[in-house]
Amino acid sequence: MSSVALSKNKLPKDFLWGFATASFQIEGSLDADGRGKSIWDDFSRQPGKTLDGGNGDVATDSYNRWKEDIDLLVSYGVKSYRFSIAWSRIIPLGGRNDPVNESGIQFYSTIIDTLLAKGITPFVTIYHWDLPQALDDRYGGWLNKEEIVPDFVNYAKVCFERFGDRVKYWLTFNEPWCISILGYGRGVFAPGHSSDRNRSPVGDSATEPWIVGHSVILAHAYASKLYREQFKQAQGGQIGITLNGDWMMPYDDAPENIEAAQHALDVAIGWFADPIYLGHYPEYLGVMLGDRLPVFTPEELAVVKGSSEFYGMNTYTTNLCKAGGDDEFQGKVQYTFTRPDGTQLGTQAHCAWLQDYGPGFRDLLNYLWKRYGKAIYVTENGFAVKDETSKPIEEALSDHDRVHYFQGTTSALLAAVAEDGVDIRSYFAWSLLDNFEWADGYTTRFGVTYVDYDNQKRYPKDSARFICQWFKDNVEKDEPPAPRRKGPLAALAARLVNAVKA
Ligand code: BGC
């Protein structure tokens, strides 16, 4: 194969790759330097809310160990690092008339400067689920569109003002489906609302998730409008939202199962992506919910449509879809990993919802590219090895199943770019570190770096080595500077170079 043909099979040299984290999952130090409470602080401390009783008080102690974490990123040779800002460190009480906390600004500012000094591009999520508790107490948080939208926009504005001179990649929200369904439908994430009174004293799972999703779309859209009107020109960055969504494959060829897979995509992804990229909710969502689906005013819709400059994609697995059931959060579709012939789709992860199936990653990339036509930034993708936490450290570091998972998704990524022509600009593996895995506490490990929670020591797993090597091998290198020689030898060298090129 000639060098030209080979370079076509590589990712472009400005492709961003690295690892992702989120503030509440890694920082700890919840009372430090004026931080206000977030909805996860007390929620995670309540008995029964996390599998192992773990909470966010210490997490991976990254509020204190951020330098060590950046050194780790440097040792991995990443191009970029995706992390999130904790709203309640920036504005402890959250609201548009509440004071800004300079220590919080300083904390993230120093991280940004340090990353840049090491040649690592910061990729920043403004909201990764840690709503200031004060806003939930004051007016019901995401349930109150009139209040939360301007409060979020104000918080985002502070971020653009204080960090936007250095941050060129902004994500307004991480995974609105999870915020809405897991926080206000199933009640497993903070603030834990649910119609199930054994689980929660408050909540209406039939209406609240759809109201919350609507508020999040609007908060995203108005923050993005503000950025593009007041900051983008001077700062030269990009802004978008990142959506979770797994590939949905029909269980078999039955027409109702083919239709079911589309319904599942409509609710998992289309609920947010269709209004943002196409300007309307998916038809099926309206059919399923009737007047429980909130309606955008024409003015709102004009702001929502086109509000994300790229497609931010978080994805983990593939579900086989069968029509039926009454679970609206899955579009009244049943998910399984068991094929009609009884075999499993892939290797089972520690969490029930995740199996390893690389080809689904390529199919999803193609689906999103065709449907929405936007450049895709893969902002999360990862695997939790079964029972990793009960293994001795040395054994856990040989994380073969995670390596296999990343082999599948990275080769699917390359095929999607090189063979299918999908415009993909980044890949962030979840996660840099084992960390606080929300309702799973510390029982489920997603890190490419093992964290020994007894002493907070970090140990690279085989998967970290795999990913770093893979991107070193598969991203085009910067052209080496042309040799600068004088005299007849230089002429000979130039002739040789030209001959090789020809
Ligand atoms: C979230 C992360 C989470 C990961 C694994 C994503 O949904 O953004 O915060 O840890 O999945 O469950």
TrEMBL record:
Broad EC category: hydrolase
Catalytic machinery residues: E380 (nucleophile)
Gene3D superfamilies: Glycosidases (3.20.20.80)
Signal peptide: none
Coiled-coil region list: none
Source lineage: Eukaryota, Fungi, Dikarya, Basidiomycota, Agaricomycotina
Key words of the record: Glycosidase, Hydrolase
Organism superkingdom: Eukaryota
This protein's name: beta-glucosidase
